[in-house]
Write a structure and sequence with these properties.
Elements (H helix, E strand, L loop, with lengths): L1 E2 L5 E2 L7 H10 L18 E7 L5 E3 L2 E2 L3 H9 L1 E3 L5 E4 L4 E6 L4 E9 L4 E6 L4 E3 L6 E4 L7 E7 L2 E5 L1 H9 L2 E3 L2 E6 L2 E7 L2
Parallel strand pairs: 3-8, 9-14
Antiparallel strand pairs: 1-2, 3-4, 4-5, 6-7, 7-8, 9-10, 10-11, 12-13, 13-14, 15-16, 16-17
Length: about 190
């Protein structure tokens, strides 16, 4: 501890500038674990001014939520309802929030061999294997655009960033008249052969 005026003690700081500290703290967060929200069915408490924008950034009352630990806490209690709304739910309360597209982004893709499994990593550090419980969906509403999504948890998806979508396409092989990727013993269609 370093000494300051009048005998007070202050924590000695080590390392570089503040962004280094933020990176060290973010790196020390535990692995992401969602809460058992499917087991909780409290009555609707109302809505709260929380919004997840198209880039997966969380906002409260129009201001970005900068504390990753807080965002991870909210994400751990996020659930999608049968009517398509998104809620933050605990055993005793449930609040509707706004989600512009989907709540998560897939920001990394790792390929494991033997058996081949593609694993996506979300912007909050959640690892999602491409398998029967976490299927791939290609949104082709905008013809010609390759917009893949992966199911993270029931009702919750992550949109693949452009770089991850390109990486996924690099794993594609031709099967019949389609391009597919293999993961966890299954084939997932990503589009027709060009």
């Amino acid at each position: 501890m370093a000494r300051s005026k009048q005998g007070e003690t202050k924590a000695a700081t080590k390392g570089g500038p503040p962004q280094d500290l933020a990176e060290r703290i973010a790196g020390s967060l535990p692995p992401f674990r969602p809460a058992p929200v499917a087991l909780w069915n409290p009555p609707l408490s109302g809505s709260i001014d929380i919004r997840i924008d198209r880039e997966g950034r969380w906002h409260h009352e129009g201001e970005p939520i900068l504390r990753e630990g807080l965002v991870r806490l909210f994400a751990s209690v996020l659930r999608r309802e049968a009517d398509g709304s998104y809620v933050l739910v605990t055993p005793v309360e449930k609040y509707v929030i706004e989600v512009v597209d989907v709540p998560f982004l897939a920001v990394d893709l790792r390929a494991a061999a033997d058996p081949p499994v593609l694993v996506f990593v979300t912007n909050l550090g959640e690892e999602v294997p491409l398998d029967s419980e976490h299927p791939l969906r290609i949104d082709d509403a905008d013809k010609g655009a390759f917009m893949p999504y992966v199911t993270v948890r029931p009702g919750l998806e992550a949109r693949l960033t452009r770089a991850v979508a390109e990486d996924l396409a690099g794993h594609a092989v031709a099967k019949g008249d389609r391009l597919v990727v293999e993961s966890a013993g299954q084939f997932f269609v990503i589009g027709p052969l060009p």
